[in-house]
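Bump. Still looking for Lysophospholipid transporter LplT structure tokens.
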Amino acid sequence: MRDNAVNDTSIWSRGMMAVTCAQFLSAFGDNALLFATLAVLKQQFYPDWSQPVLQMVFVGAYILFAPFVGQVADSFSKGRVMMFANSLKLIGAATICFGLNPFVGYTLVGIGAASYSPAKYGILGELTTGDRLVKANGLMESSTIAAILLGSMAGGVLADWHLLAALGVCVLMYAGAIVANIFIPKLAPARPGQSWRFTPMTRSFFNACRMLWHNGETRFSLVGTSLFWGAGVTLRFLLVLWVPVALGITDNATPTYLNAMVAVGIVVGAGAAAKLVTLKTVARCMPAGILIGVGVLFFSIQHSLLPSYMILVLIGIMGGFFVVPLNALLQERGKHSVGAGNAIAVQNLGENTAMLLMLGLYSLAVKTGASIVGIGIGFGAVFALAIGGLWIWQIRQK
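Sorry for the wait, here they are.
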């Protein structure tokens, strides 16, 4: 029976359904936990500048473990690696639930997420092949976007109702993901017997970094995606402080609804990019990147809910149209140089480093007492200029 499960490469196989279910539950828990933990910080009267620090400890785990998590995923059965990673997330969420330091608990969740990422993408190529692999990736992304939308809203709404219930739901989501992992067939390790010595592991990873950053096309993609995701996570925290100042709404749910509008827009923008942009016409995405910054600038000066929703949907559309072609460019060029897995690991390092830097600057600005509306205006203007500069640089490279 187990052999049949392993040999079934359909995207509707038991293994694929288990992976998709586990991904949905795990991503739901991640997004709900962020807003539930932010509510914990508010309840315990942590200063406003500490909110982005919460995400900084999360992305810090990605950066610290970047050279190693890819090898962990390839050295063991990926379904079991996913189970271990979700167990770490569960322990981290339970730590917060039981009233221990939220930063310690969220760091554990970050370590789990860093371990989970290469395993969840890597296992798709082991469960299915050929054209079905593209569909499998689409299924994975669909489940992730659904989890972002529902998890973000659930975290805010439940935190308004009962904070312990919100945290308890996160623990249950991670427990459900672990149960789903049990139904993933136990596949053979992709690359067993690799050296676990620190120096060869880090040397191999940083050689891949050097190759991708020295190539003009992949460097262009890495800079663009890093700027995008750094801006995206900063916008998420900007909304939390912006809503009570600009709209006079102090609940936990409204920022999650606004974040959900960005996710909806990204889906639309990604679909448009798939139809209108090819690897040969990647530069078509650059105006959309500039419009992201312009959109954030105009959003920051709003004082009513409906225009805010509309602008955030537009920001999301521009974001999806901007980032999808750059991701495709990196995966295609990376596959022929350092391997797709290494390219994703290098991209993760760049993106999370950008998140850490942007969140640090945002936290510093809040701590110095700068106006949240002023921060938003400045953030949008700087992002638009940065993408404009990247576009000019890319043209000169050609």
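The radius of gyration is 20 Å.

Edit: fixed formatting.
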